[in-house]
Design a protein that fits this description.
It is a single chain. The protein is mainly alpha-helical. It folds into two domains: 47-76 and 99-387, Flavocytochrome C3, Chain A, domain 2, CATH 1.10.1130.10; 392-487, Butyryl-CoA Dehydrogenase, subunit A, domain 3 (Up-down Bundle), CATH 1.20.140. The chain has 23 helices and six strands. The protein has helices at residues 2-31, 47-53, 55-62, 102-105, 108-112, 131-137, 139-142, 158-167, 181-195, 199-203, 212-215, 228-239, 248-255, 264-267, 270-279, 304-313, 335-340, 343-346, 351-355, 378-381, 390-427, 432-454, 463-487; strands at 286-288, 293-295, 319-320, 327-328, 358-361, 364-367. The strands form three sheets. Strands 1-2 form a two-stranded antiparallel ribbon. It has a two-stranded antiparallel sheet with strand order 3-4. A hairpin with a 4-residue loop joins strand 1 and strand 2. It binds heme C (5 copies). One heme C binds at residues 343-344, 347, 349, 353-354, 374, 381-382, 384-386, 393, 396-397, 463.
């Protein structure tokens, strides 16, 4: 009996000690999330080096090669009402050599982009791990000459820019902090020089997709923005009168003396940075002038018609449409601009809140660096704020996306109808002068439909704005057809 009590007491004591140790271990883990193994500084481009100190973030970063598929993929041509039943699966495209084609899923795009490189090759987006590979492999680069400016959003390029900047006479050394005066001079000098290089020359200077150094300060790990085009773009936006209640530091700057340009690295809050880090790339852009300077058209504001006004003011068009002869604009991934018009931005919800939610491992809480669709982890992305079941949340997203898709389909059909009408009238002898108004209306309609197509949330980031823009697209396209009909030429 005594023996038995003795053994039980002993085992109990051992278990208690193990528990105590475990708790102590967890507490220690929670206080020191940083392992100081590798020395990282402003020249450390390779994410694997950073990964030695931050293995959890590195692990997520690497897994962007194996993202879940978004609910809306053009190539699947999935009818909207099926979306409710289709669950998020790992991307089958991840193992394939190239992502599936958007042109196959939406054949209207071939007509809409006729005469431009996007009619040759236009694919689904996928995880960050693929960004450099996909840019090098696209037929848009292989068949058409592209500038070094393309590199801005597809590689870890901070060090490459600074090296070119130093070669071109910028002051200081590569080890200067990026945000120091010298560091910024090197960065901007490199940016100006690389933009106008050939893509082929530029891409040989880089090795990695966007990496730790492009979003983080190597000493403090604080977020920072590293893309000159964004620093210039947001400074221009600050000078406009477009209300930006979702960017309080910009509103604050506007009330000041404005002697120095708005600078996000100095003025933005941490929460704003959690969106601005993404807004360096997930935005509309063009390459301005002979220098091919990467420029964001935010001089009048972030809305579709405000960006359009900038393009009209500078007389910009990307190409002349092959069928209709209209001078048109190609839109690109305006996630930041559309998010800016929505209720989440207005409520202070950042890109990272949904696309890089926190996760837990033991007592450790850290940021999920597998940047992907939030629908892969609704519990961490949405249920932190919305007290509904996962099924209910998914079905709300489906409802928004299905409505958006239906409106977008109509907008694209209307644009194609207008292109065909102008083409027929032109073939029947209508002059450039006679077709002027119809072509101008095509430019407006096409810009709007394309902008919403190129945005990658299928309306989720700002549902009402999406419907407003597609509605305008339909109206402008049908007005254009009325103009053509007045000529009485063609069918
Ligand atoms: C409130 C949550 C939320 C916020 C905030 C948010 N998004 Fe999204 N985003 C979504 C949802 C939901 C989708 C649709 C996902 C799908 O179709 O599977 C999406 C889709 C996307 C996609 C396409 C996803 C894919 O897997 O192909 C990109 C890119 C994107 N968002 C970028 C951004 C950027 C950049 C910001 C900030 C400017 C942002 N998002 C802000 C919820 C959010
Ligand atoms: C340096 C530019 C750059 C930055 C910064 C950037 N992205 Fe991306 N992102 C891209 C590119 C390029 C792709 C498409 C890669 C491809 O298809 O090969 C992409 C793809 C995505 C996708 C689609 C993933 C999928 O599986 O389909 C999401 C979601 C996304 N980004 C969200 C974000 C968010 C959120 C941020 C900010 C935390 C961010 N991105 C920052 C350039 C960037
Ligand atoms: C301002 C940032 C930015 C610039 C500049 C940029 N891209 Fe991208 N690119 C992105 C983002 C963000 C995505 C992912 C979203 C999408 O696919 O809509 C992407 C996706 C892509 C893709 C995959 C999907 C597709 O379109 O087939 C290719 C290829 C690509 N870009 C090539 C290029 C080329 C070529 C250039 C230069 C002409 C360029 N990019 C310039 C940000 C940029
Ligand atoms: C596209 C931008 C982006 C890239 C690239 C990126 N991060 Fe982050 N990282 C973030 C964001 C956003 C946060 C959240 C920061 C905050 O809330 O202040 C973050 C947070 C962190 C943190 C703070 C702790 C935590 O988990 O919240 C560490 C450490 C970190 N990242 C390490 C890395 C490492 C290592 C890499 C490269 C393998 C990397 N990051 C690449 C955007 C990025
Ligand atoms: C940080 C908090 C937060 C997160 C995370 C968040 N939301 Fe929201 N969401 C809000 C707020 C705040 C509103 C505005 C409603 C209000 O003010 O009551 C909102 C509104 C909405 C609406 C109504 C939209 C509209 O335009 O009318 C939907 C749908 C929604 N959220 C879905 C989602 C989904 C899906 C996710 C995850 C991908 C998500 N939310 C993540 C805070 C959040």
């Amino acid at each position: 009996m005594y023996w038995l009590v003795g053994i039980v007491c002993f085992v109990g004591a051992v278990l208690a000690m193990m528990l105590y140790n475990n708790i102590r271990e967890r507490k220690r883990e929670a206080t020191s999330t940083v392992l100081h193994i590798a020395e990282i500084d402003e020249t450390t481009v390779d994410p694997a080096e950073w990964g030695k100190n931050f293995p959890r973030q590195y692990d997520g970063y690497m897994r962007t090669a194996d993202n879940a598929s978004a609910r809306f993929k053009w190539s699947e041509g999935r009818p909207p009402d099926d979306a409710v039943h289709a669950d998020v699966q790992p991307q089958s495209s991840a193992s394939a050599k190239k992502a599936p084609s958007k042109l196959d899923g939406d054949s209207r795009l071939k007509t809409i982009f006729n005469g431009y490189a996007f009619a040759i090759d236009y694919r689904e987006r996928r995880g960050h791990a693929f960004m450099l590979f996909d840019q090098r492999e696209t037929e848009r680069v292989k068949q058409k000459p592209q500038p070094g400016a393309c590199l801005n959003c597809h590689a870890s390029n901070v060090v490459a820019y600074r090296e070119v900047g130093l070669k071109n006479g910028a002051p200081g050394a590569l080890t200067d902090p990026l945000l120091s005066e010298e560091g910024q001079k090197q960065l901007f000098a490199g940016f100006s020089a690389v933009n106008k290089m050939t893509y082929n020359d530029a891409t040989h200077m880089v090795k990695h997709p966007v990496s730790c150094l492009d979003c983080h300060d190597p000493k403090s790990m604080a977020l920072r923005v590293t893309r000159p085009a964004f620093i210039e773009g947001i400074a221009n936006l600050a000078k406009s009168t477009d209300p930006v209640p979702h960017l309080p530091s910009v509103e604050q700057w506007r009330k000041g003396d404005r002697k120095q340009d708005y600078n996000p690295n100095v003025l933005a809050s941490r929460q704003e940075m959690r969106s601005m880090a993404c807004a360096q790339c997930h935005v509309e852009y063009h390459f301005a002038g002979d220098d091919k300077r990467l420029t964001f058209p935010w001089h009048n504001g972030l809305k579709a018609e405000q960006m359009e006004k900038h393009y009209d003011d500078i007389g910009w068009s990307d190409w002349t449409h092959k069928d209709s002869g209209a001078k048109v604009i190609k839109a690109q991934h305006p996630e930041f601009e559309l998010w800016s018009q929505g209720i989440h931005a207005r409520s202070g919800v950042s890109c990272a809140d949904c696309h890089m939610p926190y996760m837990r491992e033991g007592a450790m809480k850290f940021t999920d660096h597998q940047v992907q669709t939030p629908m892969a982890h609704v519990n961490r992305s949405c249920q932190t704020c919305h007290n509904y079941t996962e099924t209910e949340i998914k079905s709300r997203v489906d409802q928004i996306q299905s409505r958006s898709k239906a409106a977008l389909d109509r907008a694209e059909i209307a644009v194609v109808d207008l292109i065909k009408a102008i083409q027929a009238a032109s073939a029947a002898g209508a002059t450039d002068e006679e077709l002027k108004t119809a072509r101008a209306l095509q430019r407006k309609a096409q810009w709007r439909a394309d902008l919403m197509n190129a945005e990658n949330s299928m309306g989720f980031h700002a549902p009402a704005e999406f419907l407003r823009i597609t509605g305008e697209a339909i109206d402008y396209a049908r007005q254009g057809q009325v103009e053509v009909a007045k000529l009485g030429k063609g069918k």
